[in-house]
Amino acid sequence: MSTAPTTDPQPLTHGHCLCGAVTYRLTGELRPVMYCHCEQCRRTSGHYVAATACRPEQLTIAGEDNLTWYRSSGSAQRGFCRQCGSNLFWKPAHGRYWSIWAGSIDRPTGLRAAQHIYVHMKSDYYDIDDGLPQFSEDYETFFDKALE
Fold this sequence. Notes:
This protein is mostly beta strands. It has helices at residues 39-45, 140-146, and strands at 12-16, 23-27, 33-36, 49-54, 59-62, 67-73, 76-81, 87-92, 98-101, 113-117. The strands form 2 sheets. It has a 7-stranded mixed β-sheet with strand order 6-7-8-9-4-3-10. A hairpin with a 2-residue loop joins strand 6 and strand 7 (76-81). It is globular and about 35 Å long. Residues 1-8 have low confidence and may be disordered.
């Protein structure tokens, strides 16, 4: 039996809700952060959402009995902690990836923001002036390319 240390070639990231009832582990590369300004994200978060994404097999959740899913549209569900109410996940019906609220990931995240989506739905009390690309809609190809 070898006593030499082993290294995991996959990056390992952890995160959790505010109360800690739902925790998760992410392996592998994550998609860059996207800022979503859609009506649903604004209503569920109180502002716009900053989210990364991973493939389902990269995500392990503990405390799933404290995770509640709300079908916010015909094409997606939103996962939140039933104890503290923290928004954690957005799961599209196609199932190719899950979005994870970047603020729920333990620091340091190593993530960087890449773009704004659904900017035509942004509220009137803030400006988007960070120089990142802005799109009226979401682009599936961005998700697919980022997670290839």
